[in-house]
Structures are given as structure tokens and as C-alpha cells.
Amino acid sequence: MSRYLSQLKEAVTGAADTTLVFVCNFEVERQWATGHVGLPGVAVASAPAVVQRMEELGVLLAGPADHLLLKHPLDTGYLDYLTRLGFRVPAVLCPERTHPDRSTTEDALDSPDLLRTLRGLSPGARLLPMGAAVGEQKLADSCGLSLAGAGADVAERVNGKVYGRRLTARAGLREVPGHCCETVDELAEALGTLDAVGRPLVVKDAYGVSGRGLVVVDTPARAGQLMRLVRRRAERTGDDRIEVVVEQWLPRRHDLNYQLTVTRDGGVRFDFVKQALTEAGVHKGHLMPAALTGAHRAEIEHAAQSVGAALYRDGFTGVAGVDAIIDTDGQLYPVLEINARLNMSTYQGGVVERYQPPDGIGLARHYTLRLRATCPFDAVESALDRAQRGTGGRIVVTSFGTLNAAAPSASTAEPFDGRLYAMLFAPGRPSLDALDGAVRQALGRIPQVLEVR
């Protein structure tokens, strides 16, 4: 078990040797959004197959005494690869009843054999979901397992962007100029400041995620168009509620993500800060360490302590991730939003501990591959071996199931997009960039691959 995992267990359960049952429910924010009135046209839908298969990222966080719930078993070639690398993987438990339109949690609740297995785990075992929604709370209750961290009601409340802005103000931290809007008229008033602020405004759905529920308003015409949609819905439903924040769009030098853990007794542990790589508001990966001055790092650590203390006062314990930015003038805005859950970075901790050189650099990212047919793991492993040969770097595949998850039925044989999640480590930035380029080229030579993006 990694030191990172033992520290996580101690923080969220009180004991470093607690047996955990991991549910890596990457679709949790879709569940939290249910019942909240956001921007028109932002529907809560089931997670795509590729997103569901991201749950296997948990295999490199969980320890050998833990259990990982997965909708599908790990690919045997990928499992052999992890074993050869020296990872001691958890026991994988799969529901016996699955449906493509259900989450793994929903499948588990409909699988008597799996529920029986979970009820028979050692006393003191705890359920650690990526984030606790109603389904995970029900699963824990059905199996007699306590949740490791906050319950569903607290986690959902903390994850809202309106909550995050108000916490930032209460904690006395620097805020992105903007407004919380909970009625149609409040949104109209906030958008009415567009000409005065002299820069675009961004309207964020309080429960949007990965670019969904985010609208950039840069002209009065665009503001009017959005307000017409919002008012039309309010008139149709007789309900003028809305949950959004409106903020000035700041030019950015760096996007950042940092993690803190609130312990059961109210202690706050600052875990790490990484440079987040994004494209059109969608997360693409992490660079570590982040390019920060000493002053920026000190300010982030102060913000983490302030945010964690406020979260604890509001009933939250467990892991939380915070998004931040440094603008082009070098000003740090330490809280853009609070994610009341494990983060992509959380699942990287054990790999970073094992492979990142003390003075080296790491990159966590995914490669989007356009495939003409399903791709076996040995083809990927061979390609990556060629890519890293002679570079002094290291590549570790952190999720393989996402690569073939969207494959169509054999009868159609249409091209499809898949993702390969990996972490790259190198002595410095030039060698890291060279390794990244070599990986892209090597993956592009796999016969099943049409394009690498």
C-alpha cells in the first residue's frame, strides 16, 4: 500500500489499515444536478460509456486489501501489465446484473450476490465513493457499510458553485468579480453589468461539469438571447428560480487544481497543487509540479486551510478539490469552484509516489484515439515501449478500458473514439514534451488507430 493511500485512509476513517470499497462514480455530478434549476438546455443525462469506464482509474489508488467496484472486469492484458510493474491491485467486484444505461452503483443495488459479498466484508470496512450521491448512500446502507467522508446531502450542497462563491466571501479570500444568481431578475441584473465591466462575462450553471452549463456572454445581443430563453422557461413553468453564478472572464496564465482533506476531527491537510490543463473548459490533464512562485504557493496553502475549516463547519469531511487560476497579471484567484469529491488527481497519488523523480516533472493526460476496430492492450504496450525507449522517461497506463468502451457492435464496424489515460514522467520539461510527442507518434502507428488527438 502506498504512503499516499495510508495517509488518505487515516484522514477519512481514522485508521491507516481500514478496508475500503472504492466506487469511482465519475457521473456523480450529473446525479447532484438532478432537481436543480440551471441554464436552459442543459439536460442531466446518463454518462457516456467512456466516462463510466474511467472508474478503473481506482485500481491504482486502492490497495491489495481493498475492493474496487467495476461495471466490467479489468482487461487481463492490462491487469498482467500492472502486476509486472509491481502494483498490488485490489480485489475487483462486478455486479452480476448490468445495464448500459445504469451506473455501477445502480447495477450493484440490483445484484443480490454482490450485495451479499459486500455485507460479508470484515467489520469496519467503509465505502469510499468518488462522490456521495443518493445512490451511493443507499448502497452503503444496503450493505451495512459506513461512508468514508461526507454523506450525500452535504456533498451535494458543497459542490454547488453558488455555495462555493459564498464560502469564498465568508473566508475573506480573493473572489473572481461576479454575482450569485438565484432568480431570473438577479441574472438579468448581473448580465446588465456587461458594458460596465468591459470584458466578457461567463455564466456558470451551479451544477455544471466539464464545460456543460457554461455560457460566455460577450455582447448585449448574446445577453438578451440568454435572458429570453430563461424568461420563456420561467413563464412556462411558473418558477423564476435559477442557480448560476455570473463572473468576469479573466485572461489566464495558469489553471490550477489543489486538493485538501478534511479529517473527521476537523483537521485540514493540504495535499498538493497541480497545473490543470484544460481546453474549452474541459479537463485534459495535469502537469506537476505546478509553475508557482513561493508567494503563490503560500497563498494557496492558506486558502486550503480556510476552505477546509469552512467546509468542516458546514458538516463536510473527506477529500475536496479546488479549482483556481493565476491571471495574466500574476494575480491568484484561489477558489473558482469547490468539488466535494475525489478528483482526477486523487487517483494519481500512488503512481506519482512511485515514479516521479524528486526534481523531475510529470504529466497526467489522456490521448483521444480514432479507432477503426477495438485495440488489444498488447498493441498499446508495445507502442509505448517503443516511445519511451532511450528517452530516460517513463509511461504508465492508468486506464485502458476507456479505449474500447465506445466500440460499436460487430455488425456496424464504424470508426469510434476512445481514450487512453496515462501518466508520463521525465527529468525536465523538454524531455517530457519529447516523450509526449513520441507517444502520440507511436500510438498513431498501431494498425487499429486512424488518428491521435
UniProtKB/TrEMBL annotation:
Pfam families from the UniProt entry: CPSase_L_D2, PreAtp-grasp
Alphabetical UniProt keywords: ATP-binding, Nucleotide-binding
Record InterPro entries: Asp-Met_ligase (IPR053269), ATP-grasp (IPR011761), CPAse_ATP-bd (IPR005479), PreAtp-grasp (IPR040754)
Residues of the ATP-grasp domain: 165-372
GO molecular function annotation: ATP binding; metal ion binding
UniProt protein name: ATP-grasp domain-containing protein
Organism: Catenuloplanes indicus
